[in-house]
Write a structure and sequence with these properties.
The chain has 3 domains: 92 residues, no CATH class; 171 residues, AttH-like domain (AttH-like fold, Beta Barrel), CATH 2.40.370; 163 residues, AttH-like fold (Beta Barrel). Helices cover 17% and strands 49% of the residues. Strand 12 and strand 13 form a beta hairpin. The protein is elongated and about 115 Å long. Helix 1 crosses helix 2. The longest helix has 33 residues. The protein is built from 7 helices and 24 strands.
Length: 495
């Protein structure tokens, strides 16, 4: 080594200009090679990128976004996200409709602006992120070699039931100008297959600190049992970060992968457990139109309720009774709706249309009026099939129905829903076996005049249709809601 170093030094000192020229040429050659390697890597990324991003065969973007916007990093492409990406990846792309065609799906956050604190300076930068195992499975171009999923990544891929319910079922804080007309509630319904008794339980909170526990039970051959327990909403009763809530004597909390609902009041005692079937849920959505806010999420589209309920007139013990749970929030002046749900061994459906002073709203959960469908995948699990545009919600066989405040109001014998686009078709027919009526007065709605009567319908649904060439046919218990108008003389004339 000493001899080699001596020869190199003598060569450089003997011909310094020639040596400098050779070193310059060598440096330029190395620089050109680095540039060529960088270009080659970029070309490889573009080749794996297919058309735009990530290396997959298909790229999902928010509706209305031009892929060219993201490719050139235009300003209008900043801060774009796909709402409920977890639901899209887990339940839609991995569900029964597309799961057999999708080999892997990977969510990504690309080129998000971040600020990094370096000693005392704050430096702007861009960051991208993904879930390592999903990135590698989908062949993502930006997959980090050797990276492993964190605990948060694993919870995103397969969230525990309690974590998922906390994400879905939290309460919301109304804006200061919305408090007077704000209402938010947890809603549960069930039907007992042994006795055919059915019931509705609502834990209602208003925006001004007032609330109520509303229980309605109907047993065949008995008058309806209505219990209303007014309640004050105190600080800390409602949670904006979890599903655990308290409204007066009633509590809702997650327990053992499901819900536990308890009520301890002089007029009603209940201890109920709701076990959901995995995969049967709908993520939250919110409509804001003409000063009306309407939010809706369904943590349990198909579930099973067990426990007991006691009132002064009713004692009911449930054992795996088909049940349903949703959560609503918003302002409700001038708002009515058509809504219904049904579940059977082979699947479940949910439909709805929101009306503002008699006009259907333009926005909503998905695009209302719409019907959402799930299919059973075995072992008590389900998967999301899709959302389909409703063409018609019809009522037939009108006849004198329940009595409300001394007036007989009309009720239908059947509810018919038709939906679909292209080759996909769904039809639902609910044969109504019982109906309850009431003067619905949510916060912000006028209770003095009651030309509108709220109908709660119970029956059995027949669901038929075709989705992606596969036939759908099942039956199951169903619940539906609508409104009828009542003239001043009290004799109703229809919806």
């Amino acid at each position: 080594m000493r001899v080699a170093s001596l020869l190199a030094w003598r060569s450089l000192s003997d011909r310094p200009w020639r040596s400098a020229l050779l070193l310059l040429g060598y440096g330029i050659g190395v620089g050109v090679m680095i540039a060529l390697l960088s270009v080659g890597e970029a070309l490889l990324l573009q080749a794996r990128d297919r058309d735009l991003a990530a290396g997959g065969d298909l790229v999902l973007l928010p509706e209305g976004v031009d892929p060219a916007v993201l490719k050139v990093n235009a300003v209008t492409g900043m801060f774009l996200t796909i709402p409920h990406a977890g639901f899209v990846v887990r339940e839609l792309l991995g569900g029964p409709r597309f799961g057999h065609e999708v080999a892997a799906a990977s969510p990504e956050v690309q080129n998000r602006v971040v600020y990094v604190r370096v000693r005392r300076a704050i430096v702007p930068a861009t960051a991208s992120a993904g879930i390592p195992s999903l990135d590698h499975a989908a062949g993502a171009a930006q997959a980090v070699p050797g990276a492993r999923d964190s605990a948060a990544d694993r919870a995103w891929i397969a969230p525990p039931a309690a974590t998922l319910f906390d994400q879905l079922d939290r309460f919301h804080r109304p804006a200061p100008g919305q408090r007077a007309g704000w209402a938010e509630w947890d809603y549960f319904n069930f039907v007992d297959p042994a006795t055919q008794a059915y019931g509705y339980l609502t834990l209602l909170a208003g925006g001004e600190g007032r609330g109520a526990v509303l229980l309605r039970i109907r047993r065949p051959g008995h008058p309806v049992d209505d219990v209303v327990v007014p309640a004050a909403i105190r600080p800390g009763d409602l949670s904006a970060s979890s599903a655990a809530q308290r409204v007066g004597p009633a509590r809702v909390r997650t327990e053992a992968g499901g819900y536990r609902v308890t009520i301890d009041a002089p007029r009603v005692h209940a201890d109920l457990r709701l076990a959901p079937d995995a995969g049967f849920y709908l993520p939250p959505g919110e409509t804001a139109e003409e000063a009306v806010v309407s939010g809706y999420v369904v943590p349990v589209v198909r579930g099973w309720m067990s426990g007991e309920i006691r009132t002064a007139r009713t004692s009911l013990r449930l054992r795996r009774a088909p049940a349903y749970h949703d959560h609503n929030w918003g302002t409700w002046r001038g708002v009515t709706w058509d809504w219904g749900e049904a579940a059977g061994d082979a699947g479940a459906i949910l439909y709805g249309a929101l009306h503002l002073d008699g006009r259907a709203t333009r926005g909503g959960v998905g695009r209302v009026p719409a019907i959402f469908a799930w299919a059973s995948t075995g072992q008590g699990r389900g998967g999301f099939l899709g959302v389909f545009r409703v063409k018609v919600i019809g009522y037939s066989g009108w006849h004198p129905g329940p009595e409300v405040a001394g007036h007989r109001v009309p009720s239908p014998d059947a509810v018919t829903i038709s939906a679909g686009d292209g080759r996909d078709r769904l039809s639902v027919r609910i044969r109504v076996r019982d109906a309850l009526g009431s003067r619905l007065a949510l916060p912000g709605q006028r209770a003095g005049r009651w030309r509108r009567v709220f109908l709660q319908l119970r029956g059995r649904a027949e669901v038929r249709g075709t989705v992606d060439g596969h036939a759908i046919a099942w039956t199951g218990p169903a619940a539906a809601e609508t409104f009828v108008t009542v003239p001043q003389d009290g004799h109703g004339a229809g919806p």
